[in-house]
Design brief:
Blueprint (H helix, E strand, L loop, with lengths): L12 H20 L12 E11 L4 E3 L5 H18 L4 E2 L8 E6 L12 E5 L3 E6 L2 H14 L15 E10 L5 E7 L7 H12 L5 E5 L1 E2 L2 E2 L8 H4 L3 E2 L20 E2 L4 H13 L3 E8 L4 H6 L19 E3 L4 E3 L10 H17 L4 E5 L6 H4 L2 H10 L4 H18 L3 E5 L12 E4 L4 H8 L4 E3 L2 H4 L20 H5 L13 E8 L7 H8 L2 H10 L7 H18 L11 E7 L2 E7 L6 E5 L16 E2 L6 E8 L2 E10 H11 L1
Parallel strand pairs: 2-3, 2-4, 4-6, 8-9, 8-21, 9-14, 14-17, 17-18, 18-19, 19-20, 20-21
Antiparallel strand pairs: 1-7, 5-6, 5-7, 10-11, 12-13, 15-16, 22-23, 23-25, 24-26, 26-27
Bound molecules: acetamide.
């Protein structure tokens, strides 16, 4: 894609001269764009220029030596350049512009670009990055890196004939101030270094917020000095592997060796690492549900007396159509004053560790079936005049809001906190679609959009016959369709959006990368780029360019966007299957005879009638002569099941 195809040569002289002209134009175009310009997220405005700049060992960097933030941005850039090119870019003497990359803070440059915007000029003699603030220079650097050849992503020195940067004039700034990724470090634990690596990857796409889901039924991951059992007990479970949520219950004395937590020193280090890259960390302490690790540590905080264990991935919740209940009480007791005392301690320490202005208190998926049986809850309802379990939860959330505000922070919660009455100042993170967010915005509360159908990057990104199983799919197309401002909502209440990586089925960092990319490219574009600049086909061209960069960087990504979408149906007794692809211009080849198809097999052109004795449909997609995506083996029995379900 984006290539120019040589035209067919004809012998007629006029045509030859025409051809020469078009050839010259063709080479000029190619000379103008030595690298396929492929910036993600799409900048606000990008003008290609004919000149180009060649980065060499002689290139200098010019920046205000006294501004520590600017110097840090410059160092992050020069370190990356050194790693991949071997060049040590020296500082330019003041005023030197030739063969230099200049970083300039100029508060009067362009007010419209705000604190995070930048202007980037690449000319034959040098590169200029201008911004109002160091954050803007940092994002200018991310764009500059994306303009360099893909080998800039190498972790070792690459000998390259020339490091060409195409000429451009770019003006760019974000659509939203909140551009987040959530990383669940509770279900599976990820080390401090892994979290730093995640930050390194997200900032390339101009994300500025890392939401750490620090606590859940499967592990408490932050040291709280005044409540040491939260990590002595709550951070550890039995190591299990397979499909999380279906494990055999651990034996009573099985060693609880899987887990870990961040010490307060670790947290400080992470906060600084993130801040150095203009990323805020939003801590989440998920209460009153999702609290098995808490009650395993301090059972007196439950409404239901008993002995609790940190969940190791065995089933303990019952999920139905729009309903759920807990088989084991994993909640904190809103009727118990000790709960508020404990949360006061937790939020005191959390507030001291994280400079970000918000603390997330969860509030999602709290089973109420044990509360319904609790005498203490009945007494609370009477005393506080609460008419149902939603109001009980709302009472709890309002008290938590007071605690969080007493620490000088603002409270944020999942959209369940709307139920039973929203706390007076709460911000809402809308995950069950955009409805909760729209409702909160209409009540003039701040909202972060995170609708599961678009941005839940724990869900499968393709068909369940090939993807690691999760209950549902969110394809790249769905992520690209993410629009943070719902129809009829005042945009001023929408702070932005984020994608969420829950990690029940994510056991390691390589798989975390696979689940994140490319969908996080799509979300980055939804929260940074102007809505009218979004263009699916051009996005895919850029995604493919970034795949080549990820190959160099050895970061994993999912090829699922190349793989077909199956649609099975029944025409009387005849089983039929239709296939399509998210990416345009691909061919699907298939077999029903159990052998592996390639491009010499039948090409899919219309709905297939499944032969009566076939046991599997095997498919692979190609672009021209090149296979893309993976071989998919679709059992005919599975197609039958899907067709039956639709009837
Ligand atoms: C959530 O996905 N339970 C917020």
């Amino acid at each position: 894609m984006g290539e120019k195809h040589p035209q067919r040569i004809k012998t007629n002289m006029k045509q030859i001269s025409l051809l020469l002209t078009s050839f010259l134009i063709g080479t000029m175009v190619i000379a103008q764009t030595p690298n396929d310009i492929a910036i993600i997220p799409q900048p606000v405005s990008l003008e290609k220029k004919s000149a180009r700049f060649v980065l060499s060992s002689q290139t200098k960097v010019a920046a205000d030596a006294k501004n520590v933030d600017v110097q840090r941005v410059v160092r992050l850039f020069t370190d990356k350049v050194k790693t991949a090119t071997g060049f040590t870019l020296a500082a330019a003497a003041p005023g030197v512009k030739a063969n230099a990359i200049s970083f300039t803070l100029n508060k009067t440059a362009d007010k419209a670009i705000g604190k995070e915007g930048y202007i980037l000029d690449v000319t034959a003699t040098g590169v200029q990055v201008t911004a109002n603030d160091a954050a803007g220079l940092f994002y200018g650097v991310q764009t500059l890196i994306q303009l360099l050849p893909k080998e800039i992503e190498s972790q070792t020195v690459v000998k390259k004939a020339s490091w060409v940067i195409p000429g451009v004039h770019i003006t760019d700034y974000p659509r939203f101030a909140w551009r987040g990724l959530m990383f669940d470090v509770s279900r599976h634990f990820f080390t401090k270094q892994e979290v730093k690596d995640y930050i390194d990857d997200m900032v390339k796409y101009k994300y500025n917020l890392l939401h750490l889901h620090l606590t859940d039924d499967q592990g408490w991951r932050i040291e709280i000095k005044s409540l040491p059992k939260l990590t002595e007990v709550g951070a550890w479970r039995v190591e299990k592997t397979g499909t999380f949520g279906t494990f055999t219950p651990p034996a009573e004395n099985e060693p609880r060796t899987y887990g870990g937590f961040y010490t307060q020193e670790d947290i400080k280090e992470l906060v600084k690492y993130a801040a150095d890259r203009f990323v805020n960390i939003l801590p989440e302490v998920d209460v009153p549900g999702h609290s098995m690790a808490v009650v395993a540590s301090y059972p007196e905080l439950s409404c239901t007396p008993g002995t609790y264990r940190v969940n190791s991935g065995e089933k303990f919740m019952q999920w139905g159509e729009g309903t759920f209940s807990a088989l084991v009480d994993n909640t904190l007791c809103p009727a118990n004053e000790k709960v508020y005392e404990a949360l006061d301690k937790v939020f005191t320490e959390v507030a001291q560790l994280f400079p970000f202005e918000y603390i997330h208190m969860g509030g999602d998926e709290c089973a109420k079936n044990f509360w319904e049986k609790s005498d203490a809850i009945k007494a609370l309802m009477q005393k506080e005049n609460l008419k149902d379990m939603h109001e009980v939860q709302s009472y709890f959330v309002k008290r938590v809001e007071k605690i969080i505000e007493s620490k000088g922070k603002k409270m944020l919660g999942w959209d369940e906190i709307l139920e039973g009455g929203l706390a007076p100042n709460a911000a809402v993170m809308s995950w069950r679609g955009s409805k909760g967010g729209a409702e909160a915005a209409k009540m003039q509360h701040e909202v972060v959009m995170s609708p599961n159908n678009n941005v839940y990057i724990d869900l499968m990104q393709g068909d369940g016959v090939i993807e690691p199983p999760v209950y549902k799919s969110v394809r790249l197309t769905n992520s690209y369709e993410f629009e943070p401002v719902p129809e009829g909502v005042d945009p001023k209440y929408i702070k932005g959006g984020q994608a969420n990586l829950w990690t029940e089925q994510v056991y390691n960092m390589r798989h975390a990368q696979y689940m994140t990319w490319p969908r996080a490219f799509a979300v980055a574009e939804s929260v940074w780029s102007p809505k009218e600049k979004k263009n699916w086909n051009d996005f895919i061209r850029r995604v493919e360019n970034h795949f080549t960069r990820f190959d160099v960087a050895e970061i994993k990504y999912a090829p699922s966007m190349y793989e077909p979408i199956f649609n099975a149906s029944k025409d009387g007794e005849q089983l039929k299957v239709e296939m399509s692809t998210e990416v345009q211009g691909l061919d699907i080849y298939y077999s029903f005879d159990n052998s592996f198809p390639d491009r010499f097999y039948p090409k899919y052109t219309q709905a297939l009638k499944v032969p009566v004795d076939a046991v599997s449909l095997k498919v692979i997609t190609y672009r021209g002569a090149a296979p893309v995506g993976r071989m998919i083996v679709m059992p005919v029995a599975e197609l039958k099941k899907r067709a039956e379900k639709k009837k």
